[in-house]
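User: Can you help me understand a structure? I only have the sequence.
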Amino acid sequence: MDEARIDCADVNWRRLAPVRHALLQLADRLTAEDLQPAAIRIAHRRGDSALAWLIGGWLSARLGWPATASPPIEEREQEDDLAIRIGRVEPATTISLSARQLIVAPSGGPAYTLAVRHETQSDAVAAELENLSQDAGLGDALRALARVQ
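Assistant: Let's start by predicting it. Here is the structure, written out as C-alpha cells:
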C-alpha cells in the first residue's frame, strides 16, 4: 500500500532562505560551542514568530539537538523581522533579516549586507503553487518543532 505523500509549503520558509544560506556559509567560522542551543538567541518582531520558530526548528534538526534543548526565542521591539545572535563571547556573530536586506556580522570578521528580494504575500503563494515539491529542510524543521511540543 502506498503512503500518501503530503507536501508542506510555508511563505515564511521562503523568507528564511537568505538566513539559512548565511548560516551555512558561516558554519566553518563557528565552533561546536557556538552552535549549542544555550549560545544562540533568536528574536523576532511582533507578528513574525513563525520565522523565529522555523529557523529554531531548522537549527535543531540540522545540528541534532535533543528535543529538550532549544534556543531562547523572544519577541522584541525591533526594526528587523528576525535577529539571531550566535556565540557566548563578544563580539558574537549576528544575522538580521528585514523585508529588504540581510545583515551578517561574523565574529572577528567584516559585516556584509545583502539585498533581499521583497515578495508580496500573493507573489510568495503563487511561487509556492507554481513549484510544488517536497522541501526536506522544511519537513525536518517541522518535525523538530513537533518533538518540542
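Now, to help you interpret it: The longest strand covers residues 40-44. The two ends are 30 Å apart (CA to CA). Let me know which part you'd like to focus on.
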